[in-house]
Amino acid sequence: MEFSCKAFKVGKCEGEKVVDGETIPLVLQPSEPNKNDLESLLLGLEKNKEWFEQMIIKNSAVLLRGFDVQKAEDFNEIVETFGWEDIRYVGPAPRTHIYKRIWTANEGPLSEFIYYHHEMVLIKEYPKKVILFCEVPPPEGGQTPFVPSFRVTERMLEEFPEAVKEMEEKGLQYTFTAPSKNQTTSMRGRGWEDTFGTSDRAEAERRAKALGMDMEWLPNGGVKTILGPRALTKVFDGRKGRRMWFNTIVGMHGKELSSASMADGSEIPEEVAKRCEEIIEEESIQFKWEKGDVLFLDNLALLHGRRPSLPPRRVLVTTCK
Ligand SMILES: [Fe+2]
User: Fold this and answer.
1) CB neighbours (10 Å) of residue 254?
2) Which residue ranges form the domains of the chain, and what is each CATH number?
3) What is the pLDDT of residues 78-114, one digit of tens each?
4) Is the pTM of this model over 0.70?
5) CA of 131 to the centre of ligand 1 (A)
6) Ligand 1 centroid vs 304 CA: distance in angstroms?
7) Can you give the residue ranges of the TauD/TfdA-like domain (predicted)?
């Protein structure tokens, strides 16, 4: 594999880390200062599609920086260059459709921390790539931190070999409670009617089943979804045999709207969930968003989240198969 490419110059960003020999994220800038226009970028991507995709897998994250990317339409063109298939979002985040494949990342309050996750980790088909575009960089906070998932597994195995083995063997079960209508007062306020694209309960149940979820209707019109059994870790093709921490224990364990336990009902020890949270934070990588940044994340390799932010902040997203 060729590690350099004439269309781009490798840059640096504050906060990047070297993990297992690879710099995360790989920063790609215009090859020459006057080649920062959208047209040159699209041409550079078009000519180096395969190389670019290999870099996403090799470095887990690629940050395009210094190009003149202004708006959702530009971002959409960048994404469409690659020909990756779109994947419909299923999950708790209330989102707004902006343009073609482009959505807002989360309409929930900016003051809340969106906890680390692999996108759509509990759904049968999850995206391989999560791509974000910064239209309005936040004045303070609002970073999109990400975490090499295999490092979490490695460190959990070092500290809790037995608990990891037990959770792996038994599998995990999650519950999540959703309201009927969208509530943007919460970052997990997406209603089931929007999630499943129907207000008909029987139809929603059918669609949920297809995604691997069971439903329990609540007196207030909301629904409790039950998901399981699910794996603790996963190994994906082309990712060096790494065991990814492909679960959402910390995000869902012991929360007001959600729970996580082992699939046979046994509890996940408090200490295990708590230490895992610390380890994830310790392994996190983040940079400060700049206007026009486009970030490609390998969703099979990285967990990502969003730090609390001062307004205004506008980061758009798309997910691909
Ligand atoms: Fe996400």
Assistant:
1) 15
2) 8-140+286-320 (3.60.130.10), 149-281 (3.60.130.10)
3) 999 999 999 988 888 889 999 999 999 988 899 999 9
4) yes
5) 10
6) 6
7) 37-317
